[in-house]
Amino acid sequence: MIGKKLLAExxxxxxxxxxxxxxxxxxxxxxxxxxCALDYLNKFSVLTKEEAEELYEELTSLGLxxxxxxxxxxxxxxxxxxxxxxxxxxxxxxxxxxxxxxxxKLI
Length: 107
Hints:
Elements: H1 14-27, H2 32-44, H3 49-61, H4 66-75, H5 80-86, H6 96-106
Helix pairs in contact: 1-2, 3-4, 3-6
Subcellular location: Cytoplasm
EC number: 2.7.7.6
Family: Belongs to the eukaryotic RPB4 RNA polymerase subunit family.
């Protein structure tokens, strides 16, 4: 990408990315790659942006860092095995049950 410069980097949920891409699709015609990305996002987006933000706040209050919170929101584990898979490189948090309870309230 000649002439493009990365200005900032931030983690975001699939729900938020879906909303951003849908808004961009309304404004102008998308490239093939962006169309494929939007198709993927629409297929795998389970939560609305508001639900994702609510879950984000709840999970950060439980002591998870931003990267882990985003992974949990995107995957939405429903049992302990799925949650352990999200944290495969490190130990699952001690408050895993509270994390699963927060997820189950939204689903």
